[in-house]
Prior knowledge:
The complex is a heterodimer. Chain A is built from 7 helices and 1 strand; from the N terminus they run H-E-H-H-H-H-H-H. By secondary structure, chain A is mostly helical. Chain A has a domain of 151 residues: Four Helix Bundle (Hemerythrin (Met), subunit A) (Up-down Bundle), CATH 1.20.120. In chain A, helix 3 runs antiparallel to helix 4. Among the domains of chain B are: 150 residues, no CATH class; 62 residues, no CATH class. Chain B contains 14 helices and 3 strands. In chain B, helix 8 packs antiparallel against helix 9 and helix 12 packs antiparallel against helix 13. The longest helix of chain B has 37 residues. The termini of chain B are close together. Strand 1 of chain A pairs parallel with strand 1 of chain B, so a sheet runs across the interface.
Amino acid sequence: MSAILIFLALITGIAGWWLARQRLMSKPWLEAGTVNAFPQTEAPLTHPAKIGLGVFLAVVGTLFALFISAYFMRMVYDDWQAPPMPRLLWLNTGMLVLASVSLQCAVVAAHKDQLDNLKLALLAGALTSVAFLGGQLLAWRDLAAEGYFAAENPAVSFFYLITAMHGLHVIGGLVVLGRTNVRVWLGEKSSKLVLSTELCAMYWHVLLIVWLVLFAVLMGWAAGFIDVCRRLLS
Amino acid sequence: MVDVTPHGADFIPPAEVAEAELYHPHSWWTRYVFSQDAKVIAIQYAGTALGIGLVALVLSWLMRLKLAFPDTFSFITPDAYYQFMTMHGMIMVIYLLTALFLGGFGNYLIPLMVGARDMVFPYVNMLSYWIYLLAVLVLVGSFFAPGGPTGAGWTLYPPQAILSGTPGGQDWGIILMLVSLILFIIGFTMGGLNYVVTVLQGRTRGMTLMRLPLTVWGIFTATVMALLAFPALFVACVMMLFDRIIGSSFFMPAIVEMGEQLPHNGGSPIMFQHLFWFFGHPEVYIVALPAFGIVSDLISTHARKNIFGYRMMVWAIIGIGALSFVVWAHHMYVSGMHPYFGFFFATTTLIIAVPTAIKVYNWVLTLWRGDIHLTIPMLFALAFIVTFVNGGLTGLFLGNVVVDVPLSDTMFVVAHFHMVMGVAPILVIFGAIYHWYPKITGRMLNEWMGRFHFWVTFVGAYLIFFPMHYVGLVGVPRRYPELGDTAFIPPSVHTLNEFITVAALTVGFAQMVFLFNLIWSIRHGRHAGDNPWGAATLEWQTAGTPPPHGNFGKELPVVYRWAYDYSVPGAPEDFIPQNDPGPLTQGRPA
């Protein structure tokens, strides 16, 4: 359960930092009056959708931290045999990085009101994400062709399970990104698309980080890293 | 009280963010069925939860009948008993308590109490309810599936949960159970995002965090915890589905069943226990924190006195929420853990008693020299304090490894957790329904039916669960459908069992009176008016009762004070609503 506890410590840190700015030490029973006195404790100006997505991404992070925890708990048993990782995963990782970069470009374009660049960047983001998903499917096929099926060994089961979970989250994001794409091609003003574009970019960045961590875990680097940590501690 | 408005600031600056546009329904369907109004969604959530809770109540009667009169009720087979037990636990903990506190009270009270027109994402909120309903339907469907529902116990421990010896293990039961849980978690996450972001973003002008009613604090913190804890159950369910359907070995060790080697190999059942209880223990507080919050408001309002130690109450809620994530393994003392590991978790478990005790002291000190009105909500609140202390004390016993090991798997544990997270939160739910029903329907619930309901429920619950502690101390194991002739079980236990069953049926009858009251009072109850209890929080200051779509009239209220200005010296009434500028308009007090 180490992965999830580390993740939750991070979340607790953020929550604590935020709470520390909310005047938790104040004595509300002694203070009556209008809001002017404590402007910093008003509801933030950020769009609710952004905060909502932030909270949701914390939940997504928890989910994957738990999968990783389970992975580490299970891998210490004798029957664990990690399959050879398809080399295609490197290409897929590149695709996801490209998607993230394109969406960041889209955000810049949306802010600068450059409609053509926005169209191009959103489309590139969607296409590279689809390419990522296709690549993951091919990686599954490669692995299955070599005789590693989901029930064969827990390491293989974990590979299918974790990549499928991550893929489902990308698909969910693609639905929203697809809608944003349609809206921009239908000629909606780019000022109205700023929020959607920013949300998509934020979601993709986090999914990329999640994937990089998962990739490290699946490739076995993370386990080596943890081994080193353990030796340093003991 | 000091006026903290900066000198010379007579007007309130307009909000920098324009009000979000409110969704307006156009047809009967979008108004009452596929509604995006949090109040309607709340009633849908509560109705569904109470409906499925009724099923769980009936299941508990059947279990009690089998325990008391095993021969008369021989048609309840051990398999059926396990199925009833599993479904009773699962429904009560997740589909009733979690859904009712967060989906029901959360949806109704958060927007009203923080001064918002609705939740921030109404459409997602609506989806949340319909997915919850789907989860409930899948659960109900498992009763009609071949082989019946799962009988694995509400903890669904592998390997037994998916073996053929357990009812539903190799049939549809366990699959439908897991699918239903996964759906519930997806639906809950949608709702939970709403509750959290509405508290963060939807607060009206002047509603600082430290002016929130404790009900909102409780529901808010519980929702944050649920958002972080439910993924653990999600992961466990998905992985168990893999084990069950495609025969992987996440949790399943090598097993020979009926002389046949199963395909699983090397899996770790303990891993499931870790994942399950990483969700399961916070779940206790996900149910308890909203109850804590609501009970604080009930006590303060009905004792006409400000809550004692508001700051401490808030800190305690936050502290309990954080601590509850590092105590999960106290449910696993008998799983063969390292002694130091058990020591660590026993310590954290006992530390939680500190913030919890702070809360109990503060409730009692709020009552101290208050103008206590023994209204029905107040009776339930008082009953909650007593019951919670009672259940909490046995929790201190069980939190210690050496005490837990012999008592584990006895009826003592059953009595403990029913007291602390069964009866106690349910008493708060009843109190809260009696308290807010006038706001929801515009009518009071019938007083005499209510008092009958309270006394039978409160006294009856003690008659059920108090003796059960002794049954457990004698060593009677839990999960056994009948005891048979066992040397160490004295005949008095059998008599006690019959007594408990009679008490349980009586309490069950009282709930029927309550349900009748709920329906009867919609038409025949006394008119309540806008603020029958003289409460200070915003939901009682709406533009009409029940509150209209959009909650508050043209203008959102502006908040000038905290939620507990009761019996303020010099004030014209014994309460000052949160949106009342009060003496400030006449001139500043020194």
